[in-house]
Amino acid sequence: MKIDRKQAKAAAKQSLKRNYWILVFTCLLTAFFGIAHAQSLSSLRAVTGDTSNTDTVGNADSASLLYEFASGNIGISIDGKKLITDQLDQAQANFDAKKQQSFSLGGLEISYKEGEFAKLANMFSTGSYITTIYKGIHSITGSSAAAVIILIVVSMILRLSLTWFVLNVFVVVMARIFLESRKYERIPLRNFFFLLHSKNWLHTAWVLLVKEVYLTLWNLTIIGGAIKNYSYKMVPYILAEQPELTANEAITLSRKMMYGHKLEYFKLQLSFFGWAVLEAFTFGVGGIFFINPYIEATAAEYYAALREQAKEQETENADKLQDVYLFETASPEKLAEAYSDIDQMIHETESFTGGYTGARKFFADIFGIVPRYTEQTAAYDRNEVNKIKISHSRFELEGKVYPTRLSPKPHSPKRDRLTAIFYTRSYSVTSLILMFFTGCFIGWAWEFIYKFIETGNFVNRGVMHGPWLPIYGSGAVMILVMLRKFRRSPLAEFFAAVVLCGIVEYFTAYFLELTHDGQKWWDYSGYFLNIHGRVCAEGLMIFGIGGVAFVYFGAPMLDNLIRRIKPKAAAIVCAVLVTVFAVDFVYSQKHPNQGKGITDYPAAQSSESKAE
Q1: 356 and 384: one domain?
Q2: Owning domain of residue 338
Q3: Looking at the predicted structure, is the pLDDT value of residue 463 above 50?
């Protein structure tokens, strides 16, 4: 029975309208990875003049060692250059030259002189990281030939591993995204990791590898390769629905489903020729924003139609395609049964009456701060946790998202980490004070140890004389309370922490310079992406990662320990720490901590106008 091509295309357009941006993004990823639709990006690069990914090997930049390793050209002279000697030396020379470069855009300095980010940016932009690896291997083996051979073998293994176990598997991920778009209004970003969640990533990679081996063998015949290429077209879609199938089961099922449809599918592809011409005229833009996702959505519709036929005809192994709700929506009754606990949580949160009122409500809702821990606090926190659980599953309950609980192999239940870590909790004033001093001490210990490793000397870092750096403690507490509304999204929490810490660090440095005649306690000049030497990308990245780790793990675990302390004892400890800290702070205003390794930086100019 023939598949109605017009009907498939009409349904594909509806699917594209339903989840347009996520489908465009999916195809753009495949083009970026070079898996499919790469011609769209190639055309766009050609018209914009970006030839960074072309295969031209005419100069030292484009003939990078990484390119040569990947292309298997090691040992071959190109344009009179001996890749093993000349290019290694050239890469190192480029690295040394670029290390001296820096330029400014207003107060933003892009420099390659100091810091790990600068080294990484320099190494990868010049290709000298290959030189670094080569020298490391050479120092171990003591042989140039052995170092080259090892480098070639390792690079080939890494390239093949990246291709077969990461990039190629994304074809199945793309198939799954387009199949879900046929029936559901939303596609969560977590669905890009469905193979990881179901623990089928490596198995899927193996099945695709077997398929390619079969195709390679068939390509040795006169026309076998062309025929089998169409016979195996449905393998990614079969794996997207049922990733547990063995390689032979998936390949055989695809072959049987495509029996009598290979020419038909070829004609379907040929029907997009006019769109291909339009893509060429739009220099790839049309392909990126419509044509590529339209083609993939049509292919998903074609698979759905073939699957239905295979089920009706009782094709061998078709009974193993059991993901029913990938092709039809579940009834409200079925969803209510599967998500009964979420439905119950919705009713409980809507009828929750244990919240705070007045000023307590403001501080609890906005900042997550409570005067002390009570039963009311525990009830409020449990309600907040339930809200997050509801947000994760509500769309599934409403039938707008694929119901993971009704999949043929539901994800194995895990320990309720959200309730165990309880990162949405409220924190008492006592707990926040103790966390402030914990952050101050950890920051001081970090810089103390770092300076000792760097210089071999014991240096008491910071403006104050005690074992604390207030900027770390302040940053930790500010991330915890000022960014409370971002806790439901780790990614948003990370970027918010970067911005907040950047503001705090910049203006703290500015204030210290302003009040101490331009004296600096830190200087990031020469670091990659720094602003007036007061903040840099490398430091902010560390603050962002540390902030996320603190919010989701460190603070909840520390709070669990603090809650075990008797309230009176905790209050006494807080009072003592605050008193000692206040004395140190007042004393340090007139007698700041200074000396080698602390303030041995050039004094800043007294005003921003002079600095600029």
Answers
A1: yes
A2: 332-421
A3: yes
